[in-house]
């Protein structure tokens, strides 16, 4: 299994000559994820345990940050984030909804299904881990 470089150059396709070049590191991506999630928490007034996409994304952020702090490469850190997101999404099965769209759904309906937003976030992060692995 090969892993992409720890620093990637991002350029819009088709604009390789004219577009500016952005160099990013796995830590840059982790910092961006953390900042974005902080904004979602602030303005959405949701947190871990509210049965939202945050139930997948917050554990993923924590796993990503911890993996990178331990010296893991981008592949390993992305895989850890994806696994944490999948576990977080699975944990929403039967969880009471206190925020987001699920809070409008009757509790008896929520008992048998995990939160769709959390599941989608976990699938997205697994796709990212797969892409980083190359």
TrEMBL record:
Keyword Kinase in record: yes
GO process terms (BP): glycerol catabolic process
One Gene Ontology cellular component annotation held by this UniProt entry: cytosol
InterPro entries attached to this UniProt entry: DhaL_dom (IPR004007), DhaL_dom_sf (IPR036117), Dihydroxyacetone_Kinase (IPR050861)
Coiled-coil portions: none
Positions of the DhaL domain: 1-130
Superkingdom, taxonomy of origin: Eukaryota
Listed Pfam families: Dak2 (PF02734)
SMART domains, sorted: Dak2 (SM01120)
Keywords attached to this entry: Kinase, Lyase, Transferase
GO molecular function: glycerone kinase activity; lyase activity
Name of this protein: Bifunctional ATP-dependent dihydroxyacetone kinase/FAD-AMP lyase (Cyclizing)
């Amino acid at each position: 299994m090969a892993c992409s470089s720890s620093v990637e150059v991002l350029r819009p396709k088709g604009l390789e000559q004219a577009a500016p070049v952005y160099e990013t590191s796995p830590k840059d991506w982790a910092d961006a994820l953390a900042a974005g999630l902080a904004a979602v928490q602030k303005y959405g007034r949701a947190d871990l345990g509210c049965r939202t996409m945050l139930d997948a994304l917050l554990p993923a952020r924590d796993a990503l940050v911890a993996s990178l702090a331990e010296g893991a490469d981008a592949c390993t850190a992305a895989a850890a984030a994806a696994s944490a997101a999948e576990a977080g999404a699975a944990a929403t099965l039967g969880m009471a909804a206190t925020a987001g769209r699920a809070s409008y759904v009757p509790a008896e309906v929520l008992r048998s299904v995990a939160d769709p937003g959390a599941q989608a976030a976990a699938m997205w992060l697994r796709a990212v881990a797969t892409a980083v692995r190359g």
